[in-house]
Amino acid sequence: MNNNDLMNALSGLDPKYIDEAAFELHDTAVQKEKAKITRMRRVIFVTLPAVAAILLTFSVVLPAVMRLGKNQSASMPASDSAAYESAAEEAAEDAGSAYESDMAADSEPVYESEKAAESEPVYESEEAAESQPEYEAAEAAGENEDVASAYDSDQSMEWFSEAEKVFGFEKAVYDKGLLTIEMSETLPDNAEEVDYTITGTDADGSEKTYGEGTLGDILTEKEPLTLDISELKLAAGTYTLSVGDESVEFTV
Amino acid sequence: MQDFEIVDLYWARNENAIAETNVKYGSYCRKIAMNIVANVEDSEECMNDTYLSAWNTMPEERPDLLAPYLGTITRNHALTLYRKTHSLKRGAGQTALALEELLEVADSSSTEEMVDMSLLSEHINRFLSELTANDRIAFVRRYFYVDPLSEIANKLSMSEPAVKSLLFRLRQKLKAYLTQEGYEL
């Protein structure tokens, strides 16, 4: 069989396929549908995670920040002046004047009311002077860091696992320096930042890396995913393209 | 006029059938002819041959979809004319390019094996049925309608290299499919 046979056989195409492709007679809705599917996927894989991140921020981070603010203002309640005075007397007995002036200077930013600013510090001991609010602030900051880092790692893990899911490499075909890859999923928007490696087996059987970098360095087309690896000047053989945890083999 | 009404005119041997066909599908068939023969005179000759074939085959035939029926007749006439005028030299037009691309799928020069055309068409149809609509349209526009890549890219809102890449993958798939079906390629 040759190309002319194929060309002739195409005249026997099912009429519904000929009609489907007849742009001259009616508009094709294929791309609109595809755009709709792409938009839907964009909503699921980009917008929903973003919304989840915002909700997480408001439900975890903001309350932690608000707790921090409350602790700072609650450190010196203005109402119970008698208790302050007795505590102040005790503190004055234990500490020298230098300490008192230092604590007064330190306490000014802490205490909001004028009376609190004039009085001796509340704290009974020097250890307590490394204050409750400061301790709580440090604790809250630590919490914030934990939350933030957990959030970041969750986000990155979520994206990474998203990357694992959305590439869906099925097949790679190499032709004249271009690697065309079939995927079962849509390429994510930030695919250009993903790292890749191309490995193969050396003559002595050991694995060798022939190329690595970010996809953006070699990406020429997103649909279909086409990578220009002509610069690697690969010899005939079988190689593996790895992106994240996904990989696909191709033959040069 | 609806397709069945035009077909009824052919069956009634009413000469208005040709005029109505020209009104509804003239530009559609003319485009197919021009894509293949790339020549106004030759495409008009194809159109005349198409109307004559339609007149001669209806009655007998009563196609449900008139456009593909007429489009196929036009395509066959255009290919025959193309081969007559390009038998001695390789053409540079879209038809030559499409034929060259199909060489990647089947390039057997063996003259011993006679290919059953209807069976081959059936296999190609089955192959097309497994593709997405977008891929199928790209394939049909390139190899049935012989559209240039730029037009296919424009209609499918893709870039030309993307269409080229897509068609390359589809040809590889078709080759693998036909090999699996037992064809010597």
- Helix coverage percent of residues of chain B? over 70%
* Structural class computed from helices and strand pairing of chain B: mainly alpha
Q: What structural class do you assign from the helix and strand content of chain A?
A: alpha+beta
Q: Report the β-strand fraction of chain A as a percent range.
A: 15-25%
Q: Which residues of chain B form runs of ≥5 with pLDDT under 50?
A: none
Compute the number of strand runs of chain B.
Answer: 0
The overall pLDDT of chain B, averaged over residues, is 90
Largest pleated sheet of chain A: 4 strands, antiparallel
In short:
The complex is a heterodimer of chains A (252) and B (185). Chain A has 252 residues and is α+β, with helices and mostly antiparallel strands. Chain A has helices spanning 3-9, 15-20, 30-74, 81-94, 97-110, 114-118, 126-129, 132-167, 215-218; strands spanning 169-175, 178-183, 195-201, 207-214, 219-222, 225-228, 238-243, 246-251.
